[in-house]
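User: For a reading group we're discussing how well predicted structures match intuition. Take Spore germination family protein. Before you show the prediction, I'll give you the sequence so everyone sees exactly what went in.
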Amino acid sequence: MIFPIVVVMFIIETVLLFGSDVLHFDYVQPILERGWEPVWKVVYPNGITQPFGETIALAMFWPDVKNREKITKITFLATLLAGFMITGFDFLAILVYGDLFSRFLYPLYTLLSMISIGKFIENLQMFGVMYFFMTALIKNVVNLLVALRGIQQLTKMKDYRVLVIPAAAIALFLGMTMSKNIAEHIYFQHYKILVPYFWVPMFLVLPAILLIVTWTRQKLRK
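Assistant: Thanks. Here is the predicted 3D structure of Spore germination family protein, as structure tokens, for the group to look at:
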């Protein structure tokens, strides 16, 4: 349900930005002016772990899927579409801001502030806030559900629902106390702690080990 809304927002935003005459295609030139090194620095480890690495959480729902043959196809298409949307939003931000794009915490929100058509259609940041709230809600619900189901499997509990309120309270407490502001959360908690010590092992190293072990077992059985 969220994805169609995001697609519609992307199309509307693109049309309105074109109508506002704020897109500068010369900002994307020259391509790869400093080679591939700056690209790889952005891609790994931060770019690949968020948001693509986080999708490993969806593997917790795979055992409940009726048609498991479609899991690979659907996962691939979803990842491809997500990558396209992220690339599209970033491309629009570069067309508008150029090198300043990398300094913004929320490029989508900032882009919406640039829309101005006839001094009538403007100040659309509220739609960006709505988008953030919807996607953040879905993401938090999925992560919380995955964590609770993981605890249920590890502890052999019959029902994880008894943990919903305590887990939500802990998540709220951590969210309110981990960082003093969003800049500290992103540039310190995220880049310095979460990515190297939690996300890379959980999203890249551990799945790779499990893949190798599973592949080896299948070969030995044959």
